[in-house]
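Audit log entry. Action: structure prediction of a protein-small molecule complex. Ligand: zinc ion. The ligand was supplied as SMILES and no pocket hint was given, so placement is left entirely to the predictor. Protonation state taken as written. Sequence taken verbatim from the request; no trimming, no tag removal. Recorded inputs:
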Amino acid sequence: MKRLLAYEVREPDEGHCCIIFANNNATARREGASELNVDWEGVEHCRRNPAYDLYAPGPVPPLVLIKDGWWFECHQCSRKIDEYMDNEDFDPDDCTPVASGQDVFCCSTCQARNHAERRANGAAKVALIELFEAKFPGCSIKDVHVYGAKLEPRDDGGGMKCTVSFLFPGARYGATYEYGSPELYVAQGDLPAYYTWRGIEPPAEAP
Ligand SMILES: [Zn+2]
């Protein structure tokens, strides 16, 4: 296998860039366009950047890119992080960028806060699964989603916050349980199986 080479791909609208490791320019352009969410023609440039070859097959560590003049948004507070950050009016202890993998944080406080929120989110998911399984035994869970750090019902007019998508016995497509809602959302094609599962009479107007 040929060694992968580093290419810098840039889109013109917001000036976002990425480094792609590929065997040739065309592949790098295609993959870079997809990462930057533009199409092939929307790429401003795709050019070799041999300085990053040593990081093949990627990714290049974010802190290396920051030293080289790239900027990121803090994964926690969205503050702009660049090499000039410590020239701003911030406490110097509060503006030393740190990275966890590809996630970049403006300071260790943001990193700690993010990790704490992630742990709380994981614990809330476990609690939601326990609650769901107690309420609806015998189902198989497909996906669990908790927005934020605790279980809470949706705000007025807001989107779903804590949901479990699952297959009940006899279901082919699935259903969704929303924390705090008395209703289940059931795929149309699963309605007959749903009535059987719940042991209820289908409504008269159902086909
Ligand atoms: Zn931050």
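Audit: result stored. The longest helix spans residues 108-135. Helices lie at 25-35, 62-67, 108-135, 191-198.
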